[in-house]
Amino acid sequence: MNWKKCGVVAVLLLVAGCRGEEGAYVSQEQFGEQWPLTVPSGRVTCGYLAGRGTFVTFIAPDGKKYALNKKTMSSAQKPSEIGPIQKPDPMNPSAKKSIKVLTDRALKICPANVR
After folding, report:
1. Long-range pairs for 18-25 at CB < 8 Å and ≥24 separation?
2. Is residue 94 a part of any domain in this protein?
């Protein structure tokens, strides 16, 4: 076994893992009435872009990625705006429900060095 090659591979995997996005499954079932979206579930992700900061996204069951914060909108990933899948706010039908519960959940899964 070539230990030098194993060491290089291990370092590359470690670096790739640190720079990648962290993710977690979320659903209407978990959040109940606080669930802000018209889709029943998805995945929230958190990552970091050098020079831009922390970004958070929601990935719908169909694979489409939506921005949960403004930093995401200016990232190279160009996710869609979340508005089209946001539920109306029952207290103010002309407004959308807050996505704060999803943003907060995404930020909780960020590695400490990303937050």
Report:
1. 18/111, 18/113, 19/47, 19/48, 20/47, 21/45, 21/46, 21/47, 21/57, 22/46, 22/47, 22/109, 22/110, 22/111, 22/114, 23/59, 23/109, 24/105, 24/106, 24/109
2. yes
The pTM for the full model equals 0.75
The pLDDT of residue 43: 97
4 inside domain:
no
In a domain, 5, yes or no: no
Task: Work out the number of other CB atoms within 10 angstroms of the CB of residue 13.
Answer: 10
Residue 74: pLDDT band with limits 50, 70, 90: low
Count the domains in the chain. Answer: 1
The answer as to whether 16 is a domain residue is no
Give CA–CA dist 60/43, Å, rounded.
7
